[in-house]
């Protein structure tokens, strides 16, 4: 069947439409890539001559043409006949702009599906009418629910192989609807289609007169994706910071892709987890002219009215909207795809947005089989293709939203042995022992009176990056002598450096403490030591502090107070404590200087 094409000049005239991200998922060979290719072809958005070139290439290699080849750009994908990576395709209708994510369905490539589907506003789930429901059909539905994607269209594909029988369509719809209901999802619609012949993709055709519902294109255009997020608070992960120096261009551009909401010029913004605030000076886009506002899914750069020291991983938000959470502890639903089981007490790398931190699963509340939905309470590990509700602790504070607030900034993945092995959604913040410290630092940075000299200019002027060197060890060690010798060596090498022992704080700014509770006083000494160090670091100095027998918990506390700056923790003496670098002798100074 040959469908009519939408005129390209109509599509090219669209401006200002908010892009919508769609993940296409399905079991291997159920035809999702073919459906995307047919959709792009029938709506006239394929570049002139591309289909003809692919058809010629197929003919030259004695291979039948498939619409899937329109997006399966990798050579080995066409050779194997399966999609092995997440392909992103930009697509338009007269009503909307779309970003189509072709998420792989083969069991070995489920990890890739995680990274693809996790960016989606809605999903199209493809099921082969001839083969019927497969194990992955259930897994994909469950994974989508775990990712918080509630807007789902189910396509029953390859109806041509069943003789377009209505009974086959109804049987699959009924069985899958029962499963979706159990996991809290209600499909927006079920559509019988033939990707090969184009039935119900763009046009109805004559093969299924018994079907009176929407075609795929109409269904996509009419889904209300605004309900997918319960609010439109602005969020953007900082991808990088760029500086231009040619022709007197002094702009520093904060770059990223808008994850939620919108922002405009002169809007007051806050970066989390640091809590630093300023306002948007300009919105930079290439190659178009400067914009006044920007929306979700748009890649963009910002210049700020006041220069801030911002690093990759910060979350940019509007000051007058709901704040995200900043914490080390949270409850999450996860699914696991790694070959090795996920176990409680094991360290993993957690990636959420552009943040990347070490994390540990502190407790597994229960696990769930993604196909049978069988639940098991209080377990110590999660096997491949199982889901669970877990408690997670990160090594340092991270910023996030919960899934009931903003789905995009509640999703994360877990990395085990450099491989993405699982992912999920954050359900709620758990109150941790360092919560008060985190909140204090955010409040401090929010009200910080900034220097007229940006930290970047101090770095350029002094020829060094501010760093905090923490020297600790047993009470009777020569750690203070080591620290002062390190200061002198750095000074003689031309560095701007200052040594600050905890004794100087205890008998100086801490003289008001009465030593009634040594444990409480120690924590206050460390807090004040950290705050003074933060001021010296903001001045552009390399700071060396010394305190006896710091614990990992106290080290993390200091790192939280000086989170904008690099920290080198040193344990002076034999047998360095875990989490600290070793410096057994005074001769170790030269090894430390190399790292500064």
Write the layout of secondary structure elements.
Layout: H1 8-12, E1 19-26, H2 32-42, H3 50-60, H4 75-80, E2 87-92, E3 97-102, H5 110-117, E4 122-128, H6 135-146, E5 152-157, H7 166-182, E6 189-192, H8 216-222, E7 235-237, E8 240-243, E9 252-260, E10 262-264, E11 268-272, E12 276-284, E13 293-295, E14 299-304, E15 315-318, E16 325-336, E17 342-343, E18 347-352, E19 355-369, E20 375-377, E21 381-382, E22 386-400, E23 411-416, E24 419-429, H9 435-446, H10 455-462, E25 467-472, H11 479-492, E26 497-501, H12 502-506, H13 518-538, E27 542-546, H14 552-561, E28 566-572, E29 581-583, H15 589-594
Helix pairs in contact: 13-14
Overview of the molecule:
The chain has 596 residues and is of the alpha+beta class. It folds into four domains: 8-228, 3-Layer(aba) Sandwich (Rossmann fold), CATH 3.40.50.300; 235-318, Beta Barrel (Elongation Factor Tu (Ef-tu), domain 3), CATH 2.40.30; 325-436, Elongation Factor Tu (Ef-tu), domain 3, CATH 2.40.30.10; 455-594, P-loop containing nucleotide triphosphate hydrolases (Rossmann fold, 3-Layer(aba) Sandwich), CATH 3.40.50.300. Helices cover 26% and strands 30% of the residues. It has a six-stranded mixed beta sheet, sandwiched between helices. A hairpin with a 3-residue loop joins strand 11 and strand 12. The longest helix has 21 residues, at 518-538. The protein is elongated and about 90 Å long. 40% of the residues are buried.
């Amino acid at each position: 069947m040959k469908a009519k094409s939408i005129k390209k000049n109509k599509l090219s005239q669209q401006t200002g439409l908010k892009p919508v991200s769609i993940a296409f998922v399905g079991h291997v060979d159920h035809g999702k890539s073919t459906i995307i290719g047919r959709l792009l072809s029938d709506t006239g958005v394929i570049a002139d001559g591309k289909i003809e070139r692919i058809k010629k290439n197929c003919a030259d290699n004695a291979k039948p043409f498939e619409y899937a080849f329109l997006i399966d750009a990798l050579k080995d994908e066409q050779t194997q006949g399966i999609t092995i990576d997440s392909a992103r395709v930009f697509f338009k209708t007269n009503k909307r702009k779309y970003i189509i994510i072709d998420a792989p369905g083969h069991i070995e490539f489920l990890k890739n599906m995680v990274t693809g589907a996790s960016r989606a506003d809605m999903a199209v789930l493809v099921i082969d009418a001839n083969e019927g429901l497969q194990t992955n059909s259930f897994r994909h539905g469950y994974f989508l629910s775990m990712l918080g994607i509630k807007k789902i269209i189910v396509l029953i594909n390859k109806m041509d192989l069943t003789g377009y029988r209505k009974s086959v369509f109804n049987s699959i719809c009924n069985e899958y609807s029962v499963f979706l209901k159990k996991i809290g999802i209600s499909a927006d619609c079920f559509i019988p289609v033939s990707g090969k012949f184009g039935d119900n993709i763009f046009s109805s055709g004559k093969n299924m007169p018994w079907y009176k519902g929407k075609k795929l294109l109409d269904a996509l255009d009419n889904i209300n994706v605004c309900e997918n997020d319960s609010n439109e608070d602005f969020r953007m992960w900082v991808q990088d910071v760029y500086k231009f120096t040619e022709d007197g261009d002094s702009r520093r551009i904060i770059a990223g892709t808008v994850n939620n909401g919108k922002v405009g010029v002169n809007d007051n913004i806050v970066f989390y987890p640091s809590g630093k605030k300023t306002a948007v000076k300009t919105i930079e886009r290439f190659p178009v002219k400067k914009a006044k506002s920007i929306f979700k899914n748009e890649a963009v750069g910002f210049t700020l009215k006041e220069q801030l020291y911002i690093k990759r991983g910060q979350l940019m938000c509007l000051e007058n909207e709901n704040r995200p959470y900043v914490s080390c502890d949270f409850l999450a639903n996860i699914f696991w795809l790694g070959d090795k089981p996920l176990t409680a007490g094991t360290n993993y790398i957690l990636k959420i947005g552009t943040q990347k931190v070490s994390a540990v699963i502190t407790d597994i509340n229960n696990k769930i089989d993604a196909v049978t939905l069988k639940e098991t309470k209080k377990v110590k590990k999660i096997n491949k293709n199982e889901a669970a509700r877990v408690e997670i602790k990160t090594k340092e504070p991270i910023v996030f939203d919960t899934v009931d607030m903003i789905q995009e900034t509640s999703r994360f993945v877990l990395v085990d042995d450099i491989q993405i092995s699982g992912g999920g959604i954050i359900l709620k913040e758990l109150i941790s022992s360092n919560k008060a410290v985190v909140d204090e630092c955010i409040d401090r940075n929010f009200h910080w009176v900034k220097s007229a000299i940006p930290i970047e200019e101090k770095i350029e002027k002094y020829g060094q990056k501010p760093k905090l060197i923490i020297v600790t060890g047993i009470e009777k060690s020569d750690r203070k002598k080591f620290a002062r010798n390190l200061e002198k060596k750095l000074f003689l090498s031309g560095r701007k450096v200052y040594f600050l022992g905890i004794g100087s704080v205890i008998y100086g700014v801490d003289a008001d403490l009465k030593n009634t509770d040594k444990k409480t006083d120690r924590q206050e000494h460390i807090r004040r030591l950290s705050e003074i160090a933060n001021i010296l670091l903001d001045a552009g100095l390399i700071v060396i502090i010394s305190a006896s027998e710091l614990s990992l918990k106290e080290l993390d506390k200091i790192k939280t107070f000086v989170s904008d700056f690099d920290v080198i923790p040193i344990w002076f003496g034999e047998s360095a404590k875990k989490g600290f670098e070793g410096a057994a002798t005074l001769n170790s100074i030269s090894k430390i200087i190399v790292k500064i």
